[in-house]
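User: Continuing from earlier, I have the next pair ready.

Assistant: Great, send them over.

User: Here they are, in order.

Assistant: Folding the first of the pair now:
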Amino acid sequence: MTQLGQAIKDPGTIFVGVSTKMYLGYRDSLRWLDELRQQADARPALAAGRVVPFVIPSFPMLPAAGEIMAGSPLVLGAQNCGWADGPWTGELSPSLLAELGVGLVEIGHAERRRHFGEDDAMIALKVRAADDAGLSPLLCVGEESLGPEATLNAGAADAGGTAGAEGAARFVFSQIESAVGGDWDLAARLVIAYEPVWAIGAADPASAEYVSAVVHILRELLGAHGLQHLAVIYGGSAKPGLLPTLNGVSGLFLGRFAHDAANFGKVLDEALSLVYAD
């Protein structure tokens, strides 16, 4: 088992990750990756592996990113993968990603589902192929909108209370079950990125109360398969200050807020404070 795989099995691990999507060009990505490396190097406590930072740049950056991140605690990720080697023009096979030093691969992001027509069957193929190649699938899941029983105050991300949390958790559970084809041994090797679609790109994340409630119910559902401690991180306009307010969540999947490397460092500090609170 890889070091990352061992970290995923440890319920005490906190994951802090960031994806660039397509926001940064090549030169800006190199500069940003170097800044992230400096943030990691400035925190020697990361070497213990209780907080796992991961970085997901765009595909052309992967070789350079691997060199920049070599010897650091930073885990290299990819934003997508194909489901097989062979005649798939424009795709990248999981085996090639593994050869480039990628440790985990993002699968099933809401944007892939919406804009590129990725359905449950395709996502299941990708999850299996990534796992077969020795990669850790980072499975993105989340409800499209708040349930009708939920009340909005000033906008989607301001949802107060926990109304709608049970429906969201059951929907997310069904996405996980579909992605692994009911193979719960495979599910144990995943990192789940819970990203309510309505919170992606919003000014603020979903409320801590709501996220904590969804994850709590999700863990109860997973517990029927012995996976109550599965790594479940939150994404969707996540930023510094959020992680300490969440209960039962295994970390954060950051987006544009961490394109400022200093913000990534702030969240790492929050994660380290939590794991060493005792």
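And the other member of the pair:
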Amino acid sequence: MAQFFQIHPETPQARLIVRAVDIVHSGGVIVYPTDSSYAIACHMGDKHALDRIRRIRQLDDKHNFTLVCKDLTQISTFAKISNDAHRLIKALTPGAFTFILDATREVPRRLQHPKKKTIGIRIPNNAIARQLVENLDEPLFSSTLVLPGEEDAMIDPYEIRERLEHEVDLVIDGGVVKYEPTTIISFSGQTAEIIRQGKGQAPMLEK
């Protein structure tokens, strides 16, 4: 049975954040809010927890996962960042963007795109998500909470608890979060390219 924490979306209670981080460290799978949707997450080094997420979402090994990071310094440990990429990410974060970057050796191969060796990176503009990664002190391995057969992410934490209370270890209630997909920016070529326009606005890349 999943635990259910009601955490204030603007001023998260520190004791509940610490308890949530403890669940992640102990191999738990959690559902938490971001600035674009609810997401499902686990410790990036826990293969068993990752397999649980794949099973819940019915994902194959070609799915692009994301590392939710606390800052650019942390990103640079797990992704290769050029000077141009650094400037752009700094200008756009925190915000509703996912950046596709070449992964470093610090990223387990099972988390990388199997052919391109890339990884998605996020710094969301959501107080709960930011406090989780600040206290975890390493990236949170994350995927948007879109259940099999659905096109949109779930938005209501009470419905999430009802659907997943036997599948995950914790549901964090940060209020209803309208699903607005992130804007995806790829740095896998020579220049930054918007490959999906979503909630995040990057006028400097618009043609």
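Worth noting for the second one:
The radius of gyration is 16 Å. The chain has a mean pLDDT of 92.
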